[in-house]
Amino acid sequence: xxxxxxxxxxxxxxxxxxxxxxxxxxxxxxxxxxxxxxxxxxxxxxxxxxxxxxxxxxxxxxxxxxxxxxxxxxxxxxxxxxxxxxxxxxxxxxxxxxxxxxxxxxxxxxxxxxxxxxxxxxxxxxxxxxxxxxxxxxxxxxxxxxxxxxxxxxxxxxxxxxxxxxxxxxxxxxxxxxxxxxxxxxxxxxxxxxxxxxxxxxxxxxxxxxxxxxxxxxxxxxxxxxxxxxxxxxxxxxxxxxxxxxxxxxxxxxxxxxxxxxxxxxxxxxxxxxxxxxxxxxxxxxxxxxxxxxxxxxxxxxxxxxxxxxxxxxxxxxxxxxxxxxxxxxxxxxxxxxxxxxxxxxxxxxxxxxxxxxxxxxxxxxxxxxxxxxxxxxxxxxxxxxxxxxxxxxxxxx
Length: 398
What we know:
Heat Shock Protein 90; five-stranded mixed sheet; nucleotide-binding; elongated; 7 strands; transmembrane helix; single chain; kinase
């Protein structure tokens, strides 16, 4: 885009309506200067000095919203200068400009200051201070009515705009309230569906597990020479118990915010998470202990979110320190730990929603969470999450 001249950029910042009205005042003033100047007391047509005054008046109209009081005063002074030239009558373009600035006082100033300035202006004109002559009563009434009407129309416009603004704000609040209620209704419906699914499906799957277990024990006693059938039934039992556990986790997950119902990352994305905070001044290291296993999706997501929340707090409060992330796959549990050696994020975690959210995620899977300052300085968040016997990642991907 080419560089714009500052003067052009300034004019483009003015309201288009004001620019058009000011231009109309200038055009009308020039037209009267070349056609009817003698009818207002001029010696000849054209009266060229009128052109300059018309331009000044039109420019004042351009700035009537930015500085209404200053424009109002300057317009009255311009009228005073006009009458000092020996003209008794006010041409159409000057009268129109005066009515516009009286209207502006009502439309763009509060009632008390705007009304005070409007009354002052009317008294200045009615007293003959501008004309330097005693005005007849009918002319006083005329000036009072037209200038007062112009101010009142501006005042009515201001009240209308204020009412429209309030109605828009009210509509926005009602829309936000409607969206909030709709979100709450969706969340309540999701929770109801989750409970129904859990009650119905979990009962049926539990019965299947019990029957498979009873049949496995019966076959194990009756036919010890066919271990294949026993192994199949054991797999059915194990899969059924995992399904019941996933249903319980689903009930908790459906109570979470709706955006977390979408496909979410897991612990395999922690390295990407570290790269996003690499420019914050933290030195982040990741250590994985044990053999990674395939985790249930809900457990994998919650472990990732715990690491993410703890790392976010470290970025905010630990300063330029070192952060250590440890993910340990133990025999029957998963440990995730985020520790820093800086000043730590203790106050923010202990009083904010971060620790509460991480603890809820851990407890959802029957786990626990510990968070607190370290003796040598810094802060540590450690979550322990029990997991079923998982499948090693090497086997899961083979």
